[in-house]
Protein: Small integral membrane protein
Organism: Variovorax ginsengisoli
Amino acid sequence: MSLSTSLWLFLAVQALGLAVWLTISVVNNCHGFGGSAGAVGATMSMAPLKQPPAIHTPLLSRAIGSQTLHRTALLVVLALQILAAAACWTGCWQLLVVGDLGASRLWLNLGLSAFTAFLLAMHLGGLWFGYWIRQEGLQLTHIALLVWAVAAFFLFNTAWT
């Protein structure tokens, strides 16, 4: 196997992995919309802070209990996930079928931008609603996914040969 083939293979695996991961996220949020909206709602209503032992903080004034707003927030995330998945699949097509790394980068960058946008929406929204206090695992997941998005951006946009 040549160096250029091995590099192409690694990029292809990464692009496909990202596209599949984003697709599974879309399917999960569509299939379990009520549960996902409930999870978003728990963060937005700051429910974890109200569980025993309750944490009394001035941040609780930010709580939003509207299920309509919880569902709307999830719909925004879902729209960005759909855009990210579609763009990544187009980038995969350009890379794997057309063989045009330049064109694939444009689509993969769009996908990564939408990926980053919905991750930042969740991360910054969580920060606003104090999720670091009782939802540390969720915050760490968002941070890890942001690191993945940034690493993928550099992977896809570095001239390797």
